[in-house]
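Render this sequence as a predicted structure.
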Amino acid sequence: MKKWKKALIFLLAAILLLPTAALAAEGENGAAAALPFRDVADGAWYTDAVAYVYGKGLMEGTSGTTFSPAAALTRAQLVTILWRYAKQPVAGGSLPFSDVEEGQWYTEAVRWAAAEELTVQQTGRFGLDEAPTREETAAMLYRYARTKGAGFVGMWAFPLRYDDAASVSDWAYEAMCWMTMNGVILGTDQNELLPQGQLTRAQAAAMLQRFGAALWAQSPLSLWTEGSETADTLTAYMEAITDETGPDYIPVEDRIAVFDLDGTLFCETDPNYFDYMLLKYRVLEDPDYKDRASDFEKEVANKIKEQNETGKSFSGLEVDHGRAVASAFAGMTVDEFNAYIQKFKQQPMPGYEGMTRGEGWYRPMLQVVEYLKDNDFTVYIVSGTDRLIVRGIACDSPLGLPNRQIIGSDETIVASGQDGRDGLDYVFTEDDELILGGEFLIKNLKMNKVSVIMQEIGQQPVLSFGNSTGDSSMAEYVTSGNRYRSLAFMLCCDDTERENGNEGKAQKMFDLCAEFDWVPVSMKNDWATIYGDGVTYTGAQTAAAA
């Protein structure tokens, strides 16, 4: 897998010096757990950190009821903690240390750390029960960070301006420079680093909590919650399929992912699909068109209005909507249609403060798209929304996909001078423009998505992302009989605080994921944000009245 692209300021705010107040405990998405330790008092500076490491299985107690926060951390404990943080990878090879025996609780951790060259000692005696120094801990953290793409690259210079800088060992100097440069180690009030000092178990717990948060903040999926099983599933998949030596390797030309749009990448319920709201505005509100709208277009637009206000379903509305869009915008050039969409995108998003209609992108999912592209995936949108409308939504947006990779429902496009003649009987002229022909062709939902993937992409994708039963066929096509390891992810709209969610609908999708072995995405629990800072959900009823 490619290294993480950016090694910016990497605030591994580890407690490597005197104890300081720990970060606040994680919320409902984190690993905070009820503590059985009678020596960890409520409100202590390290309580939240102990809950974090205990809840994540990184550190255990020294007994069933004690954590021993003031006890010194041992080297065996440190290497095991880091190994657990790395999700206990399996390493081959013999043990290079004379005092490390096979079959002990720390054995595989030491083997892994030695294989990754994280340990200060390379051969000889490991010193299992000895306390690692601060500079040793800093070096191990730095070396692990480098395996994730962080650290100094090329020439660098950052002097240690501390009174005891000369006591930093040569092998730890780069690590200490990087840690201090990035605000990880600030020194004491006496301007000392204390590189030969040691860590307590409480300090180690706080260090791991801050290390985890900071490392996750620099990950390609930093807008997902730390510890998200769904995010971990995707990153583990990426590690496997980009490993040229592994059994799951997928050549670059076969790395294809398909995404639905509404409810998967973009706000679905504002209070209805973007293209539904666009038609409603065109037919019922646009002063330049509403008086010219056909009875059929008005009928469809009023059904959408009623659906927005009451939630009522109408059989066949998907296709009727497609037909109404085709007729309501007939005669517009492709560019004029796009300009109309761009203007509509500037309207405030109903039901939200701080967001326009065109800004309703799910930020965590945009990270997924970038993550896939960084790993040489070709990403396609396969949407039920009109193809030209999807292109208009994506135009000048953070999605960053070319029009050729955007597939949707279709209507006819003809030459402005064609005047109803068949395309086989007409030759495009220099005076022609491409205009919307007014005839609806196909609604790209359900099985139609599978057909259009074969028609336009020409091969089976390996990743699918959707959110509804309209995406089920696409998900099953991607994961059925695939010669490569493949996955289907389904978003579940279970967030009713930050988004117009629906817990009943979400539960049905969770159940389908369990039945079909799809990977569920909880908008509530897997995402640290949905639309980014400054956006507030105000309620669906306000939207319906808009």
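Summary. The two ends are 47 Å apart (CA to CA). The chain is about 35% helix and 10% strand.
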